[in-house]
Amino acid sequence: MKVLKFGGTSVGSVSSITTLLQIVKNEVEEGERPVVVLSAMSGVTNLLINMAEQAAKGNEFTAQLAELERRHFDVVKSLLDIQNQNPAFTRLKIHFNQLEELLQGVLTLRELTAKTRDLIVSFGERCSTLMISKIAAQHFGNAFFVDASEVLKTDSAFGNARVDTALSELLIRDLYASNTDKVLFITGFIASNEAGQITTLGRGGSDYTAAIFGAALNAQEIQIWTDVNGMMTADPRMVKKAFPLSELTYTEAMELSYFGAKVIYPPTMIPAFLKKIPIVIKNTFEPEFAGTVIQHQSKASNQPIKGISSINNISILNLMGSGMVGKSGFSGRLFSLLAREQINVILITQSSSEHSITFAIQPGDAKRAKAIIEQEFELEILANKLEPITVEENLAILAVVGENMKQTPGVSGKLFHALGRNGVNVRAIAQGSSEYNISVIISEHDLAKALNAVHDAFFVDLYKTLHAFCLGTGNIGKTLFSQLNAHADFLRNENGIQVKVVGISNTRKMTFDADGIELNNWQASLDESNDKADLRLFIDTMKSMNLPNCVFIDNTASPVPVEFYEEVLNSAISVVTCNKIGNSGSYSRYKAFKDAARTHGVDFFYETNVGAGLPIIRTLRDLMNSGDRVQRIEAILSGTISFIFNQFKGDANFHDVVKLAQEKGYTEPDPRDDLRGTDFMRKILILARDAGHTLEAADVQIESILPTACLDAATVDDFYAALKAEDAYFTNLKQQAESGGKVLRYIGKLEDGKASITLQMVDENHPFYMLSGSDNIISFTTDRYKERPLVVKGPGAGAEVTAAGVFADLVNVGAN
Ligand code: ADP
Ligand code: ASP
Ligand code: MG
Q: What reaction does this catalyse (predicted)?
């Protein structure tokens, strides 16, 4: 036979009750005689507790009571035939009247004892089970209501009573044996003490009722029917990517549920474990799904962990002092004291020097725990052998669980790496000696981020999610969005990466969506947003959203965002930027970015600062990292100037060529911003710094292409006029070059720590002679590439290639 337990949501509505009955009916039709254990309708236990507490404070409860009645009566009306409704109404009404009397008593006395509270709460299971057994009787005649308090015997620890297993098993077997022709519908959660007073088994305890019945009756299986597809790798409400596990051992299920996986009540595993009865967790709302089997052994798996669980809202107490060192019995005294006072200790860690003990408890117990410890260890505190006890609040426990951890080195490394990269501070660590679990205590505020980051780190078969906050919706920003959109499937399938753009801002508006902004519709999201652009607020929102694997992307050319880089990196958020202003500012700032990234274990990527998408920064970094030394760098890193000199030949005049370049969109609005060499200078400066030189912008010597008259012109129009006027100057340069079989090239150079940009005439033997369109070229002469330099060449400007470079940086975030 099997035990089938249905939880709150499974008995919470007309449609779920209909499904439930179908599931039971299928069993019956297969000739089985299952035992059915039921919870209260969803939310009812909380409602009852709330009413009782309100009554004890002198507050009214009638409205809630009416609501409770209505929920049950609605089900009766929908699912029972007319002629069967009245008896059901009568039985239920008797219960509600009793309940009302009890609550009235609490209200009158303004007192709510644990005993009364259990009695009040028991009406949840009694009403639901009574009602469903009546409906079931209509479906398959022999359904029989059982109040479990008649057979489940416990001690008198109201609220969390301990079961007298031997006695209860006897009574259960008796009950089953004397009702051979019936299908029993049993109240979960409730029991009674020796005196016959109602007790309860702890919140979520209906699962436990099922296990006790299963063990007593040697069931072949205990089924826990709930509202998810089994035990999942993490709490699905916190981790969207959590997925159901097909198998777990009792120990793993116990560890996961003990540390917060609410789907099954931890003590449930014990009776099942002792009798080796498999527990199967199934979904009432998707009955065909196989669910999770919990049994003695599970099939070999290559995952180092099975799941991640968490407990929110805990407090920790710290005890510190020399009085503990080498004192045998100190922790014995401490923990017996807590046990005596019924303070449940969730987790303990002790430093190896024995200088300190930290333990986690429910916040409600913290004050009392502190007081009794101070009382117990008064002498030690007076003698300064124990420091004043400190309490820390608003913490959470995150635990990774799995039996494979034992054989797999590096599990804790992976855990701490994921936490560290996301700026999650670990307050305390505990590893069970069983090595089935590693638990860390972190701030509650970081829990969701930590859970998702750790989930991404361990379940690599899934894809990893990067959360991107993007500044700038100009050409590059726009193109990046369309590239991300077009390649989303490929990225996910081939690289295991999902990029969610969760924040966008331009200079006018900003918008956020933690679930990801639709990239084929980002413009509308931004237009429709009510949030005016505010960079300070943008950064604050990004921080407070506290998402895992965050990347801040600067696709602007503005100095304003740069002011925030350091703060962003210090918040453990990676930065990807095509904006050159940051790295080409003062050296100390450049260094501060690098240091902040290193300190916080995040990435600071700026491949597109030099040569757009060409692999220049990366190549230099690889050379340096592999121990090579750069002797010389020569480069043409201005696509605009390349284009201009490539066009400036034969009959062409300089003025027209510059105009053409502007019309083709190759120049800044004021072409002098390119021709002055400032942009080029920034690139050379960044390269020099990456090559290890502490240069400032002023150290880069720039030979101007333009005569003073052109540089000084007041407006862009004046500038063009000046270009025309200086035609002779340019023509002369051109002729000089052409007559020697040479071409004009504006070349940056780094050698012996000195950087310069000069206008040169090079002949066909020079590697830069052949350069077409707006291409960039760079040659690295290094200790290894001495005879023939390493050359990178290709298009070094344009929205497509720049956005592609930003894209590449983005997907490389966290790769190492
Ligand atoms: P029931 O009322 O059926 O007993 P519970 O609410 O007690 O159901 O437990 C089921 C809920 O547990 C799920 O809806 C899910 O939100 C939550 N949960 C938390 N952690 C996990 C996990 N690791 N796997 C599955 N569910 C989990
Ligand atoms: N109804 C009880 C509770 O909500 C028991 C259970 O659902 O398992 O805690
Ligand atoms: Mg439950």
A: L-aspartate + ATP = 4-phospho-L-aspartate + ADP; L-homoserine + NADP(+) = L-aspartate 4-semialdehyde + NADPH + H(+)
> Which ligand 1 atom sits nearest the alpha carbon of residue 256?
23
Q: What span, in angstroms and rounded, lies between the C-alpha atoms of 664 and 178?
A: 93
Rounded CA gap, 522 and 545, in Å?
A: 19
- The fold adopted by the segment(s) 464-609 is Rossmann fold (3.40.50)
What is the enclosing helix (H) or strand (E) of 359? strand 356-361
Q: Where are the alpha helices (DSSP H) in 495-649?
A: 522-528, 535-545, 559-562, 565-570, 587-600, 617-625, 639-647
Question: Regarding the domain delimited by 2-42+121-227, which CATH topology (the fold level of the hierarchy) does it fall under?
Answer: Carbamate kinase (3.40.1160)
CA 279 / ligand 3 centre spacing (Å): 14
Token pair listed for 471:
């500044």
Quote the pLDDT of residue 486. 95
Interval between CA 151 and ligand 3 midpoint (Å): 21
pLDDT tens for each residue of 494-517: 888 999 999 999 999 999 999 999
Q: Assign 3-class secondary structure to 709-738.
A: HHHHCCCHHHHHHHHHHCHHHHHHHHHHHH
Per-residue model confidence as pLDDT tens digits over 510-566: 999 999 999 999 999 999 999 999 999 999 999 999 999 999 999 999 999 999 999
Q: Is the CB of 205 under 6 A from ligand 2?
A: yes
Delimit the CATH 3.30.2130.10 region(s) of the chain: 307-458
Mean pLDDT of the residues in the chain: 93
Percent of the chain whose pLDDT exceeds 90: 78
* Chain length of the chain: 816
Q: Dmax of the chain from CA atoms? A: 116
Q: Choose the residue to mutate in 263, 308, 311, 459 for probing ligand 1, maximizing ligand atoms within 8 Å of C-beta.
A: 263
Closest atom, ligand 2, to C-alpha of 8: 7
Q: What integer is the mean pLDDT of 422-441?
A: 84
- As residues whose CB is below 5 A from the ion ligand 3, the structure lists 7, 204
Among 580, 683, 734, 793, which one carries the catalytic annotation? 683
Is the pLDDT at 433 greater than 70? The verdict is no
> Are the C-beta atoms of 147 and 187 separated by less than 8 Å?
yes
Four-way CATH pick for 307-458: 3.40.50.11690, 3.30.565.60, 3.30.2130.10, 3.20.20.70: 3.30.2130.10
At 349, is the pLDDT very low, low, confident or very high (cuts 50, 70, 90)?
A: confident
The CATH class given to the 616-797 domain equals alpha beta
Residues 6+ apart with CB under 8 A from 173: 216, 217
Of 248, 228, 246, 247, whose CA–CA distance to 238 is shortest?
228
Residue 669 CB-density burial (10 A; 0-12 exposed, 13-18 middle, 19+ buried): exposed
- Tens digits of residue pLDDT in 309-338: 999 999 999 988 887 766 667 788 888 899
Q: Which residue has the higher pLDDT, 27 or 300?
A: 27
Looking at the CA of residue 205, tell me the nearest atom of ligand 2.
8
As given in the structure block, the two tokens for residue 29 are: 């039709």
Cα of 205 to ligand 1 centre, how many Å? 13
What distance in angstroms lies between residue 262's CA and the mean position of ligand 1's atoms?
5
**Strand runs (DSSP E) across 432-521, as ranges?**
437-443, 464-471, 497-505, 509-512
What span, in angstroms and rounded, lies between the C-alpha atoms of 242 and 236? 6
Residue 232 CB–ligand 1 contact under 6 Å: yes
Convert the pLDDT of each residue in 202-259 to its tens digit.
999 999 999 999 999 999 999 999 999 999 999 999 998 899 999 999 999 998 998 8
User: What percent of the chain has a predicted confidence (pLDDT) above 70?
Assistant: 99
124 lines ligand 2 (CB under 6 A): yes
Q: What is the mean pLDDT of residues 291-315?
A: 89
Task: Determine the Cα angle at 394 with ends 390 and 395, to 5°.
Answer: 85
Cβ of 267 less than 6 Å from ligand 2: no
In the residue annotation, 241 being an active-site residue is answered as no
Residue entry with tokens 């095509």: 578
